[in-house]
Amino acid sequence: MSATSKKMGRTSVPELRARKGKDPIVCLTAYTAPMAQRLDEHCDLLLVGDSLGMVVYGMESTLAVTVDMMVNHGKAVMRGSKNACVVVDLPFGSYQESKEQAFRTASHILAETGCAAVKLEGGAELAETIEFLTMRGVPVMAHIGLMPQQVNTMGGFKSQGRDEETARKTLSDAKAVAKAGAFSVVVEGTVEPVARQITEAIDIPTIGIGASVACDGQVLVTEDILGLFSDFTPKFVKRYANLGDAVSEAVGQYADEVRTRQFPTDEHCFGLAKKGKLRAV
Ligand code: KIV
To answer: Would you call 188 a catalytic residue per the annotation?
Structure first.
């Protein structure tokens, strides 16, 4: 929710689109209902990202994430939130084959979860797909720059736009997805001058992740900022809390108390229905 507007009901896609060049859009990833509940009052946008494959399921990349996983987590985030606009990622292999395949997957996700829009990774090569979806009632958030689903073709999770060739490609991808009708675009892992140039060149909001303050909004993986995922931490992550350590400490204390019979105490046990009388059951 922006500092200037407190409104009832979910932030809509057109409202987000209209935030271009205004106060920054706040976005975080969410995968579960309780986390969505916590994030909802602070965020304009909740992204059910396919990063859940790595963060929740312990996978090495996002490539094995399925449509069913995205639907289930999308439903949970919708149940846990009531204000933020919820966007769900199209997982690898569920949209690249054809624009028709993309529509089938996207419409299924929209219908099953009730989310407002889908996100897909790709630039100019997916412009036709983006146009096909948006013309048929599926709002699309694009994702350019570092695209985790292309980890194998990119040879790792590599930042983009640090040389002339990838800078040019990232800018032309941004222009292509905006022209195709995307309502916003995630720009991941690129340098400030490129992010700035993109943000100035297109008329839809840019949501940066590792792409500097020049973007119209920011997104990060919630578990990264809370210290709940530590397999690796990208350079662009700022850690705002260390909840992983708090979990270890709390669970360690519970384990000690169980082993030493300090837990449970009377306070955590049921009393008898009538004082002193215990009937055989
Ligand atoms: O999958 C994801 O969570 C994402 C964000 C990190 C932008 O795509």
So the answer is: yes
- Where does residue 21 rank: exposed (0-12), middle (13-18), buried (19+ CB within 10 A)? exposed
Name the maximum alpha-carbon separation found in the chain. 83
Calculate what percentage of the chain has a pLDDT beyond 90.
89
Amino acid 24 reads P
Mutate to test the pocket of ligand 1, among 31, 89, 94, 224 (most ligand atoms within 8 A of CB): 89
Q: Is 223 in the pocket of ligand 1 (CB under 6 A)?
A: no
* Span 58-90, pLDDT tens digits: 999 999 999 999 999 999 999 999 999 999 999
Tell me: cis bond preceding 193? Omega within 30 of 0 counts: no
**pLDDT one-digit tens code per residue, 218-228:** 999 999 999 99
List CB contacts of 20: < 8 A, sequence separation 6 or more. Answer: 203, 204, 205, 216
Ligand 1 centre to CA of 219 (Å) is 8
Indicate whether residue 35 lines ligand 1 (CB < 6 A): no
Alpha carbon nearest to ligand 1 atom 4, residue: 49
